[in-house]
Amino acid sequence: MPAQSPRRAPLPTPHLTVLNTYLKPKLLTRLEKRVRRKTVVALKEMSQQIQETKRRRERLLKDSRQLLEEKYLVQAENQFFVEHLRKNSEQCEKKQEALWKQYAQECGEIERRRQDLASRYTQRNAALRAQLLQGRETQEGLKRQLQDLKTVYKVKEGQDKKIQALEKEREKIRCETAAKDQEAHKQFLREKALVEKELEELHLGQMSAKGLTGKYKALALACKQAHFEFCGSLHRENQQRRKELQHLGQEYRKVEAVRSQLEKQQRLVKEERWYLEALIRGRQRLQAGRERHRAHNPCLKAGGSSKTKF
């Protein structure tokens, strides 16, 4: 380890210098030496106290300077914050005034809109009432027409039943006519076979050709006449049935036209009823919207106070 350097002795104070100059240790008595030692100790202590006081004074001066610097900084910061708060306060006041003006304008606009809506609501309500009254009158007229058409509908039902009965009778006549025609044809064939048999018997009995031919012609003419009369009566009956069917067809078309008109009027009645119900619902919604507007409008109650303030 390197050798430690010898500690330097402290410099003598002015008091010790004066004491050493005038009170030399070699010339003093024992009492004076003891007093001198006590004096030296007291002077050293006083010197240390003086040094300590100087150091504390320097620290206090340093702390005082720091406090002054901090004071100046705090004052500068306070001045900045005061200026900032003043500017913010002015901006807030201006913004508050602008907001109050905007609030007053919006309240005035809302009041104008409310009056406009109230006027339009009154006009619309009057128009809806007129339409409702007209719709009720139309509905009453349609009810009367519907009551009148019920009779026509009953007549149409009766005619439908009559047409169905005539259709059944027509089919029955067709069947009977076919059966009668078939029966007449069979009768003609039987008579023809009988005539042929008689002719054959007459031929075997050696009758004259002239008599046989005359009888055959008479029988053929009678059969032809009977067949012609039967076909004529059947044709006349068919003509009569055809005329009846044409008349029934015309009646059926008339009834169909009445039925289509009745259905059209029923659709009109339904549309009128739907229109009236829609008008009633629209009126109820309009009234409900007006009530909600009155309940939730924040400027209706404060309108008077804001106007007096501005």
From TrEMBL:
Record-linked InterPro entries: DUF4515
Signal sequence bounds: none
Pfam families documented for this protein: DUF4515 (PF14988)
Chain spans, region Disordered: 290-310
Coiled coil: 43-70, 156-183, 245-272
Domain annotation DUF4515: ranges: 77-279
TM stretches of this protein: none
Keywords: Coiled coil
PANTHER family for the chain: COILED-COIL DOMAIN CONTAINING 121, RETROGENE 1, COILED-COIL DOMAIN-CONTAINING 166
Protein name in UniProt: Coiled-coil domain containing 121, retrogene 1
